[in-house]
Amino acid sequence: MENRILVVDDEKEIRVFLHKALSRFGGFHVELAESGEEALQKLEKEPFDLVLTDLKMPRMDGLQLIAGIAKSKPQTLTIIMTGHGTIDSALEAMKLGASDYITKPLNLDETIVRLRKVLEERQRFVRLKDFADQLERANQELRKIDAMKSEFVSVASHELRTPLAAIKNAVQLMLSGKTGEINKNQEKFLSVAERNINRLTNILNLSRIESGKIELKFENIELKEITELAASSLRPYADGKSIQIEAQIPEQLPAIYGDQEKIEQIFTNLIGNAIKFTPDGGKILITAKLLSHDKKGGYGDMAAISIKDTGIGIPAEHLEAIFEKFHQVEGSLQRSVSGTGLGLAITKGLVEAHQGKIWVESEVEKGSTFTFTLPVSEGERRDLHFRFILDKEFRRAQEKAVPLTLFLIQVLDEGGEVNEVLLNQLEENVKHCLCRKADILLRREKEKILAALCESNLKGAQVIRQRIEEGIQKHPLENQKPSVFIKVGAATYPEEAHSNAELFRLAKERLGG
């Protein structure tokens, strides 16, 4: 199909020359206009791929025409023709949206080459845009499927957890012989059922972690006590293999801050793994120490807990993949031990939910050391929960390519102090302003600041902020004196911030401004 070109020039000789030359030698379909006004009228009536216009024309010059095309027909390409003495104007035209400029007197071969180059670039751009549109549509479908998957996981986890626990208890009771004697065949099939129940339970647990549906109840936890609790529960299993478990947790180590049940699961998974892959007569050593970090952009002090065994070790080529779902290391002892291949993936998810890290060091035939970090309870205790939510929502926004706005809201009295009573009232007011189900409202307890996370771009954030301010005006806080004032700071990803730390820093700066 011929490219359609509109030539605009107030000189008839040039128009006629270009019409003949571009049609005959360039293979273009060429239309003519003698003024900018006529060109705009033609563009309204029929489409053109490219407009080739002179710079200097009476009434409407080339710059004005290019500006008009950029506004009314932005998909139409423009090239300007100019004399040698008006290069600055040609550059100005390109700032307005022109794709190229050609100097007079015209060189026909060069003109045709330049026109084709611009049109080819346009075709490449159109193809790329089509691909981008296809990718966006595919991403939208994937986001819908992901949302459906998350909803299914949430419902399935809730609905299946209780009956699975009941089935597991019944199977374990039968295996223990408390419901009557069972034969070898019955024991075999009940053991198969127990393994599959454990597998399904692990899949549900991992799915909740990955979908961000996991709930954490943060509290101060004595590391020595929880270590001993987990080790004690697994000692009968270790005694059956004559494996010694020793815990060396310093008394002076501060309490950690996390979810008791989830941290117990971390210990149970790692100690259980160590017992499973350590030959009879081996040893497991649990140690802990304090790691100090720069709190700027971090989470303060962390406790590093190591679980070292004298087991068979992990080959170097498997170390990077050891925390992946369903990854299992092949080997004689590994093959004799059944498992779902999900324990370490769940453990990693639980550690990261506490803003910690986990890694492994291992040497074949000598043993492995799994080390993970957990935050100590000094400093910003509730901030950890806020940072966990912020990190989770920021990762979700990145993965789903959606915007995220963080609002920080504070109410102060005349002395610059936070009023707890008014803050509680403000929290109720703000809740009514967040209309989306996915919007999150929580507190940063140490600073007595409300934090709201909304899936909105910069324009949407302005609407939400206006809604909050209007809501406060319509429903003023009880006993609010003229000296009490409310401050709001906000920042939006990706338009203003490109990391979660930058998002928080900008919102905090604007709150204080």
Q: Can you describe this structure?
A:
Helix 4 links the parallel strand 4 and strand 5. The protein is built from 14 helices and 16 strands. Helix 12 packs across helix 13. About 2% of the residues have low confidence. The radius of gyration is 34 Å and the shape is elongated. The strands form four sheets. The protein has a five-stranded parallel β-sheet, with helices on both faces. A five-stranded mixed β-sheet has the order 7-9-10-12-11. The longest helix is centred in the N-terminal third of the chain and has 69 residues. With 513 residues, it is α/β, with parallel strands linked by helices.
- Give the helix/strand class: alpha/beta
Number of distinct helices: 14
Radius of gyration using CA atoms only: 34 Å
Strand content: 15-25%
Helix content: 40-55%
- Average of the residue pLDDT scores: 82
Strand order of the largest sheet: 2-1-3-4-5
Q: Report the biggest beta sheet as strand number plus sense, adding barrel if it closes.
A: 5 strands, parallel
User: What would you call the shape?
Assistant: elongated
Question: Can you write the helix and strand succession as a string?
Answer: EHEHEHEHEHHEHEEHEEHHEEHEHEEHEH
- The beta-strand count equals 16
Query: Which stretches of 5+ consecutive residues score pLDDT under 50?
Result: 294-299, 332-336
C-alpha end-to-end distance: 59 Å
Entry keywords:
16 strands, 50% helix, 5-stranded parallel beta sheet, 5-stranded mixed beta sheet, 513 residues, alpha/beta
